[in-house]
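Q: Can I see a sequence and its folded structure?
A: Here is a first one.
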Amino acid sequence: MSDQSRPPRIDVRGPRFVAGITAVLLLVDVFLGLVGVSAESRSFGWFAYQPLSNDLAAPGGMLGAVLAARASDPAFILLAVIAALFVWGVVSPRTAPWGVLYRKVVQPRLRPATEFEDPRPPRFAQGVGLFVTVIGLVLHLSGVPWALPIAAAAAFMAAFLNAVFGLCLGCQLYLVLQRAGLIGRTSAAA
């Protein structure tokens, strides 16, 4: 394989730095989710609101109030911001804020990198984080109790493992899917 066909390599410390900041944000979100709207006890069963009348049909009815309350929950807002950062990391990783912070402020203060990696697995991992957080946001708006803090906790665990131990679960998933031939493999030249 020639050097031109290989994707550019990145410093392995960059994704770990990004995971560290993401883990801190997600830990704050888990805390907010445990004390906010998503943690309020409901006596209605699985869903937070089960209509007893036709209030849902009226403009600005009970559904609008419930959605507004859930969407204004600080944990929801923070997880939406984190999801937006995941989108940024997937769409344009070179301009994502934590990557730029690492390259402009942190990396110049470190020794030159000795280990490099393919940027595709960390980018895929950002997509996995996006998927998990979006599921938590949608389920939270749907009224599923504890969905938001559970999704934030799952994303936190993955970010923590990457930041502290260098174990990127999304990267490992990428490699498994690549070995299975489902993603990331170009056809071999004959």
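Q: Show me another, different protein.
A: A second, unrelated one:
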Amino acid sequence: MTTYHIRRGSTLERSQLVKFLQRTYQELFPQQTDFAHLAITVEQYFSKDTPLWWVDFSGEESRAELGTITRVESLNISSPLLPPASSPVACLWMGNAIDQIKGDRHAHIFLLYVVPEHRRRGIATALMQYAENWAKQRGDRQIALQVFQSNPPAINLYNHLGYQTQSLWMVKKIN
């Protein structure tokens, strides 16, 4: 039985977070080679108020002291600050936003990423449930995220989980 564990990240893991952000953008925009600016994004927004969780793959063995995701039909995990068992295979980075219509603070997903070799195993769905539980615990009434139109698998996942388009981000090149 394949086992995954989730653990709370720390602000000392900035470089790992930057690497995961870069991997995300490199997959979506392979024609672009420089994503150094993402380090500035992490520097500006990553703090104790924008929590980060990692998912580690531990193969067949189980470590009961950590929360466990097993072929991830459900999410029965905790987030202790323990050292990683291996290199992370997924991450969830949360933040805060203000609903521009009602003025309420709500959770915002900055990053949800699963390395390609571990996709289609329910990890992203489990992390989204984890995000929702975290947001509910702190009193939020909604979660928001941004997804690129060029990422149909993510759009399908979010639609399947009940997310709805509220606005469209439109861009016009002026050069």
